[in-house]
Structures
1.
Amino acid sequence: MKAKRYFFIPFLLVCSVAAFISGVPSESHAQENEAVSLLKTMSDYLSSQSNIELEFDSDIEVITPQLEKLQFASSGVILLRRPDKLRAHRVAGHADAWLFFDGKIASVYSRSLNGYARFEVPGSVDQLIETLRKGHGVALPGADLLLSNSFDALMTDVLEAKHIGRGVIDGVQCEHLAFRNFDTDWQVWVEVGQKPIPRKLVITSKTINGAPQYTLRVRKWNTASMPGRDSFAFTPPDGARELDPNALIELDELPQGAAPGGKQ
């Protein structure tokens, strides 16, 4: 979630919540320790799962030059088989994109473009996520949560942590955690109980005009057996044309020409 932090944004009631979370110094220290501990519990649980299937909805906000706030929505599915298999599908109004990774080759296919690109990524899903961050114009929602060392990645550059309390996401009781970085504030709601999975993630970009937000909500979660190895390999559909990997910017979470902060 580095600079892009979308894995890669709903609003607080300022007065009452600010009074609640400020607290006295000892309370703040206890909140921080509890927030970090709960995040570690979530991260350890995620890292221990060999198979993960999740369905998600995501929203990303854009501030236009006229200071109009627009929100772009998408939905999708991610299948992960550690350490080196992944398949993801995301549908939005402007894109219908698939990502396949078989441990050697990453393939990205756009149904709307009927085009695909392939590039070598020998190694793990962690290496795939790092490669996607460096380019190719493809965003993998919630990528930091899928890393084998998700706790270290999430805590990088964290300046402040708070355990806000409990909240309910889609009828599920969750621990509400809030973290601050220099350029982003982010919140995560972690399911209470034996399966401490992230139910919701909200990231606020503080250095961009209008503070646009990114929201990821996990609708379904499954750690049962996954499809076979062939399900993570890509076979181009008839008539699909091969594209340069750097031409895949059209598959990002925003339509071309729209960018957070109103840069168009």
2.
Amino acid sequence: MSGTNYLDPAALARLQNMELRARTIVDGLFSGQHKSRFRGASAEFADHREYSPGDETRHINWKVFARTDRLFLKQYDADTNLHVHLLLDASASMGCGGDGLTKLQYASYIAAALAYVAISQADAAGLIVFDEGVRSRIAPAATRAHLSTLLQQLDDVRAQGRTNVSETLHALASQIRRRGIVVVLSDLYGNAELTLRSLAHFRHHGHDVAVWHILDQIELDLAFRGPVLFRDVETGEDLAADADVLRDSYRAELATFMRTYQQGCRDKFIDYVSVDTRTPVEQALTSFLQRRLSAAR
């Protein structure tokens, strides 16, 4: 077992940059764990996608550029056998965090590690950051330069704004046409039934879907005492309540909320991961990848 196995969140936060964090998280993980039934093996032309900074210019379709004045890359099955679409919720609620990592930091480290694994295996990774709409988008690619661009975006992302998970995911399900693995990283706040329908929309289009439901210890335990003024970080609304009186009913509602996602994802053949920010990042990632490998056999 390497010295970074089960890396704790506090240690991860002390590392200098996202690429180093990604390397550290995946150190010692075996390859091939994220493989999908959608892999191809031929060198035939598959599709076009828009050029992103860092892509190799030798794949630009100059005939298309002459007609449209826009840069598109030719893609071949053998060049990008699998697309991994990382969908990161960066709304204000994702900024919640106790003594360790915020939910957004935790989600970003998972996204960085998955991108690192994918591109290291010559597959393509892309990143979409969203709140109540798409904030930024990096199209999937498989180059090392592209990985650096993606990791820099993760370094720069900040938690802000409101969120509308269900509508945003519905829109993205209509836009992401080439099927692959869709990984959603979010606290999933909002109407659970509507969000489950939007996740099913990805499945309808043939995607392999994995959902990381990320919560913080503060949200799970509600370990405050006595009168507390709660503030909704997305709306700014305040609620005064006695935490001791509220705690039992709050925990029951949260448990129901999480069971709804767990059961709904199971029914729709969606991979569901419930994790809190106290869980060592590499431990969560290793468990996720090993389970997917076992399921694929």
